[in-house]
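Working notes for the structural subgroup meeting. M.R. asked for a predicted model of this chain before we commit to crystallization trials. I am recording the input and output together here so anyone reviewing the notebook later can reproduce the run.

Input as submitted:
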Amino acid sequence: IEFFLFGSIFFIGIYHLGLYSLRSKDKSPLYFGIYLCLVALRILMSGERFLYQTFPESWELLRKFELLTFYIAVPVFLLFFNALFSNYVAKRFLKGSVIVGMLFSLVVIFTEPRIFSETAKTYQLFLLINALYIIILSVISCYHRQQGSLIFLSGFAILFLTMINDILF
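Returned structure, recorded in token form:
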């Protein structure tokens, strides 16, 4: 099931990257494609932990890669939201989110596992702040009858509930 999920999400991500290559003025397919590819790669390192079982000698490198996919995905998703609803996202919040994601990523890259593994719980709080921000802005964009905002809010609400479930698990 996880391989099917990986393949499905990964190819949808590649499809969106292809859409971006055909029409590079619209950045939303680029960010969505990157986000989906990150999620797909993360699937191989969580749940059944396929990559850890396949390459047990590379545990530290895989752990870094697992956290990097998480730390990069959050600001990339906010960039995707900004590409769709740029009138609603505060540029300072967007810039701050990207900087925080980069700082956490640098900690993962340059420290050892006992240090960078401790950053995940703090970053989950950062994820929740970003997710609540996106929900609030989605509701506002629905109120203003922005095209596509209701569909986005519906899909993101489901994603938000799964994020909460994963954090609590």
